[in-house]
Every structure is written in C-alpha cells, then in structure tokens.
Amino acid sequence: MTLYLDYNSTTPLENGVVETISVALREEWGNPSSSHSFGKVAKVSIEKARRNLAVMINGNDNDIIFTSGGTEANNLVIFSAVESYRKWVETQKNVPSDKPHIITSDVEHDAILLPLKHLKSRGDIDVSFVSAAPSGSIKVEDVISRIKTRTCLITIMFANNETGVIMPITDLGRAISKTNELRVKKRLFKILFHTDAAQAIGKVPVDVEVSKVDYMTIVGHKFYGPRIGCIYARDVGVTTPLYPIIFGGGQERGFRPGTENTAMIAGLGKAAELVIENLDKYMKHFICIKEYLLLRLQEEFGDSVVFNCHNDENHILPNTCNISLLGMSLTGSDILAACKTVVASIGAACHSQNKPSSILISSGVSPELARSAVRLSLGRETSKEDIDLATADLKQAVESLKK
Ligand SMILES: Cc1ncc(COP(=O)(O)O)c(C=O)c1O
C-alpha cells in the first residue's frame, strides 16, 4: 500500500476533470480558430473554461491567458515587465536608459528565481532579493524599502511550496498601490505587481481585487487539474503589459500564440469550477486533517518534532506541514527512503535530494533542521486513518534508522 502525501508536488485529476477532458477530446477537437461548427464548439469550450478561471480569482474573463503551465506564466510576466520598462524609457525624455530593477523574495520557485538570475547574468536587469528569514515570511516594509526609481516589477509568491507560508500579499498590494500613486505624480514607471499563486489556489481564498495584483500565475496540476496553467493580467495589454515570448498565429489574442490545447483548457476550467463550488469544504477538510496530523506527530515524536515555520506570526497553507526531527542526525531523504507506505518529499521535486533545501535555509530554518526536513502535503481525500498510518510509518522508519 502507498500513501501519497505529496500533493504540493502535484495532484491527481478529479474525476469530473477527467470526464470533461475526455468529452473535449472526443467532441471538441476542432480548431478553435476555424469559423465552422467544429471550430465553434471548441471555442465555446475554451471560453467557458476562461470564465471559470476568472470567477475563481474574481477577475475578468478577458484577462486570462492560457499557458503551458506555471513556469511559462512566470517567465511571461518577468520578460513582459522588462520589455515594458524598456519601451517606456524610449518614450521618456529625461530618463537615463538604465537597467530595470525587479524585487522578489529569496524563497520563490525556480520558475521565478532562474529567469531573474538569467537576465541578471546577461546584465539586462538588477534584482533585489528580500529575505524571508527568520520567520519564513517576507515583510512588506522590506519589499517597499528596496524600491528604486527604476523598479518595474515586484514578484512575490502567494504561498511557499515547501513551508506553506502564506505571504502578506494583500498588505503588499495596498502598499504598492500607494507607492504607485506617488510614482505616477512624479512621472515614474508604475510598478507592476505579480504573485505566483500556484500553491494557494484551491487551498485558501485567492482574489485579484483584494490582493490588488496586476498578474497572477495559476497552475492546474496543483488543484486537481491538468498540467497546463494560465496567467491573469489585469486589463491585459491596456493597463498591464503582456508581451509574447513565442511568436506564431494570433491565438490568445497574440499574447500566447499556438493552437489551443482545447481538452486541457476545458479540464483546467472544470478544476476551477470545482474550486469555486467547494473551496470552503476543501479548506475545512484540510484544517481538520492537518490538526490531526500535528497532534499525532506530537504523540509519536514528542518534543523531537519541529514544525518548520509554524510560528505565531505566520499563516500556513492548511494542507502543508514541513517537519524536522531534532537530534537524530537523520536526513529527510533517509527517513522517506525507510518509509514503507508514506510517499512524500523533502522539498521541491526539482531540487537535489542530497543537500538541505535552500528554500528552508532562506526561510530561517537551521541547516541541521533543514537536513532532516520532510514535507507532508495533504490532499482532498486524505483521511484521519491515513494520518494514523503515516505517523506510524514515520515512527517505524526513524526507529529502524536509529538501529
Ligand atoms: C510555487 C510554484 N510556482 C511555479 C511552479 C511551476 O509550475 P510548473 O512546473 O507546472 O510549470 C510550481 C510547481 O512546482 C510551484 O510550486
């Protein structure tokens, strides 16, 4: 028997999503750009999905652009902000053509950190990395204090994939709006605000009006949808710039050319519809099961178990629990390898299994604790019985390793 507790890495598809995808594959296979009936059926399906995604985050349909996933969505935002700043400088008389500046945190996913490091290494941008240490959460004032005249983008994730820490996106949105009011008066570039909400959707409420973001990244396979995604861009192409990074046909109004993947888009729309209908239910379930998980871990491991980043200051995703075991000199990888049923991970799937997670270290977790860290992330179907099995399995894994 295998017990999957790695839902932050990816989720299975909901049955309703599989059904929607199957119907689309069978019946909506026409090219959505064709004006005949086959094309129209596919187009209707795509627009229905777009509507569901917009409703899910309280945005407008037109501001949703489908992408291959979160990585592409994040890259699209970064390259758009840089291009937009470059074009803006060209139109200004007394602005020196200096490098655009971007602010981010040091606990972002590689789909943010690596494009930024790439552009920086090419000498195209300056970047300020705001530290999430010691609590695991960034501070609004730390972000605002790093703003320069040349700042074009602030990109901070909604919730961290490894620690589950929810960042103060709403407070940050308010602070950036205020800053922008002054900047517009001073004829400075209006700073664009992006949040990568890959880990938050389907777990906590996410609303583009409340958070005042210009861009939001949405990733289907983190909320029981297919492996595609989309970018929300407020009043896209008018108040919020979006420049394509690939070129071809005019699909997605030219922002993301290429014949649409109708079936996966339909599935993504269905996954969004399920979130719209059931978010409260999902949240209540996560809260209840996570509470039980914390209790059972404490019963099994007593004071040796540390819940990383669970402190009075932080809000944490209700499905995420990053733990370390004190004083046992076991690595997270060893513990997971010795588990007989539990399947989880020590951090982001794309990172090395041998080194302590740099994200945990940047979140203020000590190297010793980071080395033994295991991320347990719960799903919609995880039960208390599963938690009993998981904690017993972790216990036997640790006991066998100690021997
Ligand atoms: C916070 C965050 N952003 C972006 C991504 C990238 O998504 P994808 O690999 O589907 O492109 C992930 C996936 O792990 C993620 O957790």
Which secondary structure elements does this structure contain, and how are they paired or packed?
Blueprint lengths: L2 E2 L10 H13 L9 H21 L6 E4 L2 H22 L9 E5 L4 H12 L4 E5 L9 H5 L6 E5 L9 E2 L2 H17 L6 E5 L11 H4 L3 E5 L9 E5 L28 H40 L3 E3 L7 E2 L3 E6 L6 H7 L3 E2 L14 H5 L4 H5 L2 E4 L6 H19 L1
Parallel strand pairs: 1-13, 3-4, 3-5, 5-7, 7-8
Antiparallel strand pairs: 2-9, 6-11, 8-9, 10-12, 12-14
Helix pairs in contact: 1-8, 2-8, 3-4, 8-12, 9-12
Question: Could you characterize the architecture of this molecule?
Answer:
The protein is of the alpha/beta class. It has 2 domains: 3-11 and 279-402, Alpha-Beta Complex (Aspartate Aminotransferase, domain 1), CATH 3.90.1150; 15-274, 3-Layer(aba) Sandwich (Aspartate Aminotransferase, domain 2), CATH 3.40.640. 42% of the residues lie in helices and 14% in strands. It has 12 helices and 14 strands. It has helices at residues 15-27, 37-57, 70-91, 110-121, 140-144, 169-185, 208-211, 262-301, 332-338, 358-362, 367-371, 384-402, and strands at residues 3-4, 64-67, 101-105, 126-130, 151-155, 165-166, 192-196, 215-219, 229-233, 305-307, 315-316, 320-325, 342-343, 374-377. Helix 4 (110-121) links the parallel strand 3 and strand 4. Helix 8 (262-301) packs across helix 12. The chain is globular, with a radius of gyration of 22 Å. The chain starts with a strand and ends with a helix. The site of pyridoxal-5'-phosphate has 12 residues, from helix 3.
